[in-house]
Amino acid sequence: MSFVQNFPFFSIILAMFSGIVSSVLSGKKARNLSLAMIVVTTALSAGTLAFCLKTGESYTYMMGHFPAPWGNEIRAGVLEGVTAVLFGVVMFLSVAGGMTHTAEDVEDSKLNLFYIMIDLMLSSLLALVYTNDLFTAYVFVEINTIAGCGLIMIRQKGRSMSAAIRYMIMSQLGSGLFLIGLSLLYDVTGHLLMSPAKESVELLVDSGSYRLPLLVIMAVVSVGLAIKSGLYPFHYWIPDTYGYATPTGSAVLSGLVSKGYIFLLIKIFYRVIGYENLVGAQMINVLYLFGVAGMVMGSVHAIQETDTRRMIAYSSVAQIGYIYMGIGLGTTAGMVAAVFHIFSHSATKALLFISAVGLYEVSGDRKDFVSLRGAAYRNPLAGIGFAIGALSMVGFPMLSGFISKLLFATSAFDSPSKMLPTLFVLAVSTTLNAIYFLRLVITLYSRRREGDKPLPPNPVKKSSRGLKFAIVCFIGLNLVLGMASQPIVQAITDGLAMFE
Amino acid sequence: MDVSLVEHLLLNIEETVSIVLFGIGFTILLLHRNLIKKIMGMNIMDTATYLFLASKGYITGRAVPIVVDGIQDVSAYINPVPSGLVLTGIVVSVSTTALMLALTIRLYERYHSLDLDEILILAKEEEQI
User: Fold this and answer.
1) Per-domain residue ranges of chain B
2) According to CATH, what is the number of the domain B3-63+77-128?
3) What ipTM is given for this predicted complex?
4) Is the CB of B8 inside 8 Å of chain A's CB atoms?
């Protein structure tokens, strides 16, 4: 066994231990530890990815001394590696970009708690990516939920706290469904490890027994994770949650947390239930319908919003819809498109939230359209960052959003019955995206008019270096995803093939 | 109603009860406006899952899987895995309950209400001032 194969385990445990150590550190030290930890875990994930690319296959890693099917396992392949690296990069940039605001929004004595939540969040996300055991996945889903709730409620404002309790309630509904789904699965298969469970599921499907329980398991697990990732119509917690957390919190919650759940769902689909069984049971059609509805309705809600941060949050609902639509197409190409959109949306949405902060800084911390008029001249870098993020969401060539839209459109041709609705909804949703994003970009680049509500005194604050650095890096990440997409798409395809 | 369906439900009485309880808890958590009752609903939902798991692990006539009298034969004991899962699940649900109660206390101190709809309205008004 190569030493590199330990890396996934090291990265999870390292993230968790930095959380524990941070509890006795001051806020600033906890922040530095957190940033260092994210760099190290990302490097470890990159090592794992390089190892899997070199060997060309995935491997399982035994936790403890009990071999399968009794013990606990970690599994790493190309797709896990790519996802873990990307999550690490987005996490690092979100923390670095928002750290001055975090220090302002959070009481000094509680600042280290914020970074504990960040550490635990990364640890649980990595565990969700790497784990091969369903119950471990459940436990880390809960850790993720608690850390997410902490990230929202640490900002002691009324709306943040009411958003936190709403988030917690919806998450608990999702977790409850996920847990009962796992219990039912354990009941019919007798396994919690993904690989043996899949063998049992295949036996059951071939013999035709337990058809109804399997259908219930698929439904309950999908709906549970769909609630947690904010698929329309379970999206009511999203705007408040993303809108009133700290900037880092918003970027992390929208860019990473919901993606972690979707990644887990894809993993369960491939590694436990079997994608063909899912297609056979018509379950994906339900996801497809919800996804398509989300693509349109999320954008419609976003158009009606006057608070720009809530508008960006509503656009997440639409983008999550895209991902579920890709899953629901029922083809490998659709799944590749969905996974690529997971990456593309994490990078873009975090860029939008972080550069929006740069624009609020120069508008007296106001978030409405009128106050933001001309903000891009007051903070040019944030303006460019926001414009690039918005164009990427709309699907401008060279940016990551274009590649996802292209992949969705081409994959639609593989499933004849869904081709027309998919292309139609893609067109409608792109138009709606363009309406609200470009309206905001145009507002940012137009001069203030006579009679505009005056900005509060001393509205223009200088952006911190961390924020500038994060915006530049996020723009770079977007361009990389958009222009060098071929190797990434190839890695996703290989990684999905390794899931079988 | 179909007679065999009732028979099946009665035969698997623990599972039936736990799924009914799960439904009750889920509905309370989703629909009730009072935060404390929501938390109660969440606990009912979680406990129902544990009842389901525990009843699945139990095999009639067998003992707790703790070796005291030297019998090492597997057929003498029940399946210990679901019990382990229930224990883990209890730890998780205790921590989420604690977090939700803490949040509820904070919100009650601020808005003097446990009604979630009212809290959301008050929080909205507070921001506009």
Assistant:
1) 3-63+77-128
2) 1.10.287.3510
3) 0.94
4) no
